[in-house]
Design brief:
Elements: H1 2-22, H2 26-46, H3 52-87, H4 93-106, E1 112-114, E2 117-119, H5 122-143, H6 150-163
Antiparallel strand pairs: 1-2
Helix pairs in contact: 2-3
């Protein structure tokens, strides 16, 4: 157990190092890219027409980099919100209850096919289900009218189940 714990600690350190070197601070990168883009756009306003082609190309590249940085920041906050949701579940009780209500509503029977007809009214669905089970159990109960007949009934019922 100690070896696994040690390996997990080492993995955590390596992942932090990799994250810092690969992505850095997402918020600082967004500010840096935004400042770079604004600087290029200000230079575009003051520069003469002869040097404008190079600045337009630089602006395009800076805008793409800024958009990428904004996307990384969006992903950061998206993941962060999921973490906060699991961490602060009790603080989101209204949202939790709405989610449960939605789940309960979707798990009910809202439509039922009866032969070729489709029943959508909840009262008709309830009546159809009740009638189905009443006729099902009445059929079995009619077979067993007295105690002496129960052994024969159980034997034929089990035989029917095995054969089907």
């Amino acid at each position: 157990m100690f070896i696994l714990q040690h390996k997990l600690k080492m993995l955590k350190i390596e992942l932090r190092y990799w994250n810092k070197n690969s992505f850095g601070n997402v918020h600082n990168i967004v500010l840096l890219k935004q400042g770079l883009l604004l600087g290029i756009q200000q230079n575009l306003e003051t520069v003469s027409m002869s040097n404008i082609d190079g600045l337009i190309c630089q602006e395009k590249i800076a805008k793409e980099e800024f958009d990428h940085a904004l996307h990384c920041q969006y992903l950061f906050w998206k993941e962060r919100a999921k973490m906060l949701w699991f961490k602060d579940v009790n603080r989101n009780t209204v949202f939790f209850h709405v989610l449960v209500k939605m789940r309960n509503n979707s798990s009910g029977i809202h439509r039922l096919r009866n032969d070729n007809a489709v029943i959508e009214d909840s009262k008709l669905i309830e009546e159809h289900i009740l009638d189905f089970y009443k006729t099902l159990y009445v059929e079995f109960i009619s077979r067993v009218q007295d105690i002496g007949n129960i052994k024969d009934f159980i034997g034929t019922y089990i035989h029917e189940m095995v054969s089907s």
